[in-house]
Design brief:
This protein has helices at 2-12, 29-39, 95-107, 121-130, 184-208, 218-242, 266-290, 312-320, 326-332, 339-345, 353-358, 361-364, 374-378, 382-386, 398-402, 415-422, and strands at 18-19, 43-44, 48-49, 61-66, 69-76, 85-86, 91-92, 112-117, 136-139, 147-152, 155-159, 166-173, 250-257. The protein is an alpha/beta fold. The protein has 3 domains: 2-178, Metallo-dependent phosphatases (Purple Acid Phosphatase, chain A, domain 2, 4-Layer Sandwich), CATH 3.60.21; 184-242; 293-422, Flavocytochrome C3, Chain A (Flavocytochrome C3, Chain A, domain 2, Orthogonal Bundle), CATH 1.10.1130. β4 (61-66) and β5 (69-76) form a beta hairpin. α1 (2-12) runs antiparallel to α7 and α5 packs antiparallel against α6. It starts with a helix and ends in a 5-residue tail after the last helix. Bound molecules: heme C (4 copies). One heme C is lined by residues 23, 26, 28, 87-88, 329-330, 333, 335, 338, 340-341, 343-345, 404-406, 409-410.
Length: 427
């Protein structure tokens, strides 16, 4: 739900291309493809590739134009320190292997190359240090503030804050040189101002004494040399300009933080409100379904390992389902300490999930409660182990599944069908 809402908002903002960050992948690549088709959004990534043939899953590069400037936009997806991580439908390969080739390809027929990167700043700096040809890196991420453009060799690195709570614009004056530098006209004007100041100071001194008496005045002689240098500098710059040397590329970047009381764009806000309402309605429904149930403490849970002794058949079956590797799935994406994700990828009685969130329980959960274990569906079973006949665990109903199989994470959940795939066999 949230991903769709964000994508819809992006579409309204008329984005040419959208980079793919790891959090965009929580719903899987198929979901992103759907969003791409529905909302006409262009996801770009050079390093999100098919596991088998290593071809990019989405467009690696998009070509567009601003005036007569031909622009190529490349995307790069953060591998979160695990280059080569492979999921069912994609692999994130290292930027070192994927990026240089695509930059070369982009250079043909483009005057300017922009990279949308979800890697953190240190990696983007390294990219700017080691790869030629990228003119602008726009870094995404969850940072709370904008980053003033930083020039590293001929690459400008910048970042806007999450949620766009800044107003402003980065203007780029792009010229044939393809090199960031100062505008010649601007440079001449600056030198001219300096010359005016020097002339004014010289004039003041000469008013008091004739020039012939000033030979030993050190301030006066310094000013004269400065004037000579400045005039030379202006002449040199002017000559360059007259010779038709094109101005180097330049930019201005001005952003001001917006007060949170500033109204948002009404149309975009409408989409956000609608999405929030949907998510809230869902959470409310979940809460209503769970408030009647008692909370458990961890000591009422036994842990999956304890069941094997008496239920070897069910344990063996469970091990073949992906419920038994849910934690590992997160680990592969380096998200195993993200409590936003853990909540559905570990073993807790579903009615305690909200509490778990509040108490930071998730990241400290002992090993035996990793993965979607037996007690995710059958409820706390410590009492059952002590007296199996008199304390029967729960047999799950649909609402148990829906705690995790939400629209956002599984938009294709048909209970009867999916139950058939995971219901434990009889002993
Ligand atoms: C010491 C042996 C033993 C252990 C350990 C054990 N169980 Fe059982 N379990 C039983 C027996 C015996 C029954 C059948 C009880 C009956 O029919 O009254 C049973 C029944 C069940 C049932 C079916 C309940 C029903 O209403 O049909 C479930 C579900 C279950 N166990 C889950 C678990 C889980 C989960 C664990 C691990 C946390 C576990 N058991 C550990 C012995 C055990
Ligand atoms: C605690 C959260 C949670 C609960 C409760 C839960 N699931 Fe899942 N389920 C998951 C997660 C997470 C995955 C994906 C695991 C992975 O791929 O790493 C999954 C995967 C599945 C799959 C795919 C299995 C496979 O091997 O490909 C099915 C089918 C499924 N769940 C059905 C159900 C049903 C039916 C219920 C209720 C009886 C249920 N789940 C309860 C979290 C949960
Ligand atoms: C509300 C519960 C929930 C949360 C929160 C959640 N997941 Fe999942 N996740 C699921 C379920 C359910 C499935 C199985 C979906 C299916 O079988 O189609 C799943 C499957 C997955 C898969 C396997 C998908 C595939 O196509 O291979 C990955 C990877 C994954 N989740 C990562 C994450 C990450 C990373 C986060 C945190 C950003 C996260 N999940 C948060 C419930 C959740
Ligand atoms: C994703 C949910 C889910 C998980 C996880 C799960 N089960 Fe089950 N289990 C079910 C369902 C559904 C049934 C069938 C219930 C029914 O017949 O109503 C079932 C049935 C059982 C039964 C009763 C079988 C019988 O004889 O009728 C036992 C015992 C059992 N599970 C043990 C386990 C153990 C042990 C684990 C952990 C290794 C486990 N389950 C994990 C969903 C789950």
């Amino acid at each position: 739900m949230t991903a769709t809402g964000i994508a819809r908002a992006m579409e309204l903002m008329d984005c040419k291309a959208v980079g793919i960050a790891p959090q965009d992948l929580a719903g899987g690549v198929d979901r992103l493809k759907e969003i791409q088709d529905q909302q006409k959004l262009n996801w770009v990534s050079v390093n999100l590739v098919e596991p088998t043939n290593k071809k990019p899953v989405f467009t690696p590069l998009i070509r567009t134009k601003a005036g007569s400037t031909r622009i190529a936009i490349l995307g790069l997806t953060d591998d979160q320190g695990h280059p080569g991580v492979t999921r069912e439908k994609y692999t994130i390969v290292s930027w070192k292997d994927s990026l240089p080739g695509y930059v070369k390809q982009a250079q043909e027929g483009a005057d300017m190359i922009i990279l949308l990167s979800s890697y953190p700043e240190p990696v983007n700096r390294e990219i700017a240090q080691t790869i030629d040809g990228i003119h602008l890196i726009l870094q995404s991420g969850r940072a709370a503030s904008n980053m003033a453009p930083l020039k590293i060799r001929n690459t400008l690195l910048t970042r806007v804050a999450a949620r766009g709570k800044y107003l402003g614009m980065m203007r780029i004056h792009w010229t044939k040189t393809g090199f960031w530098g100062q505008d010649l006209t601007k440079k001449i004007r600056k030198e001219q101002n300096k010359l005016d100041r020097i002339n004014w100071q010289i004039g003041r001194i000469e008013k008091k004494k004739p020039a012939s008496e000033l030979k030993n005045n050190s301030l006066y002689t310094t000013l004269l040399t400065d004037r000579k240098h400045t005039i030379n500098a202006i002449q040199a710059l002017q000559k360059k300009k007259d010779a038709g040397a094109s101005d180097p590329c330049s930019f201005t970047s001005q952003f001001i933080g917006l007060k949170s009381s500033m109204p948002d764009d009404t149309e975009v806000q409408g989409v956000i409100d609608q999405t929030t309402r949907k998510v809230n309605a869902f959470n409310k429904k979940r809460k209503r379904a769970t408030t009647a149930l008692p909370h458990t403490s961890l000591d009422k849970l036994a842990g999956t390992q304890k069941c094997e002794e008496c239920h070897p058949v069910q344990v063996a079956f469970w091990k073949q389902t992906s419920h038994s590797s849910a934690w590992k799935t997160l680990e592969q994406g380096n998200q195993q300490f993200n409590d936003e994700c853990l909540v559905c990828h570990v073993t807790l009685p579903y009615y305690d999930l909200d509490r778990a969130r509040e108490e930071q329980l998730l990241v400290q959960l002992p090993k035996e409660f990793r993965d979607v274990g037996c007690e995710s569906c059958h409820g706390p079973a410590a009492a059952h182990i002590k007296a199996p006949e008199s304390n029967h665990p729960l047999l799950p109903q649909e609402k148990v599944c829906l705690q995790c199989h939400t629209d956002e994470h599984d938009d294709n959940f048909v209970y009867t069908e999916k139950r058939g795939k995971i219901a434990c066999p009889k002993g």
